[in-house]
Write a structure and sequence with these properties.
Blueprint lengths: L3 E2 L4 E8 L4 E2 L4 E11 L4 E2 L4 E3 L7 E3 L4 E2 L4 E3 L11 E3 L4 E2 L4 E2 L3 E3 L4 E2 L4 E2 L7 E5 L2 E6 L5
Parallel strand pairs: 1-3, 2-4, 3-5, 4-6, 4-7, 5-8, 6-9, 7-10, 8-11, 9-12, 10-13, 11-14, 12-15, 14-16
Antiparallel strand pairs: 16-17
Length: about 140
């Protein structure tokens, strides 16, 4: 309920979305080969691509997550042979043009800076920056 899907956004396959979400122009959410689960109050901005692996890995996006423009959320390729699901925990923010590789969990309240390339799990309440992304500092979620 109360979701905005831009006229040229593409949502296909096994995609379930909660309430109060938005999927903006040219974004692609490809659940054609496995499931993508999206919580409430999720914002997927222009040109973002989210997809998974045939019968192997899924993508889970919890509540109140923001995925910036032109981000890539991949559970369908490997890095160092590590294939696995992508999980974006509640209240995390993924900066513009960032890439999240397979088998990665981004912790609750964490922030991935713009243009970062994430190859490791990110604990909760942390800011990660760079290519490859590295820990920068702790975040106080109450601020």
């Amino acid at each position: 309920e109360n979701c905005f899907i831009a006229p040229n956004a593409t949502l296909v396959g096994d995609v379930k979305m909660g309430n109060d979400c938005s999927v903006w122009f040219n974004a692609v959410v490809r659940g054609d080969v496995n499931s993508i689960r999206i919580g409430n109050k999720v914002n997927i901005q222009d040109g973002a691509v989210i997809h998974c692996t045939y019968q192997k890995t899924t993508v889970t996006i919890e509540d109140n997550v923001q995925i910036g423009s032109h981000c890539s959320i991949y559970s369908n390729s490997t890095i160092d042979g590590k294939e696995g699901p992508v999980i974006l925990k509640k209240n995390c923010k993924i900066g513009t043009h960032s890439t999240i590789m397979p088998n990665i969990t981004i912790g609750e309240n964490s922030v991935i800076a713009a243009y970062s390339f994430v190859t490791k799990n990110v604990p909760k309440n942390e800011l990660w920056v760079g290519v490859p992304a590295k820990f920068k500092k702790k975040i106080n979620p109450s601020l």
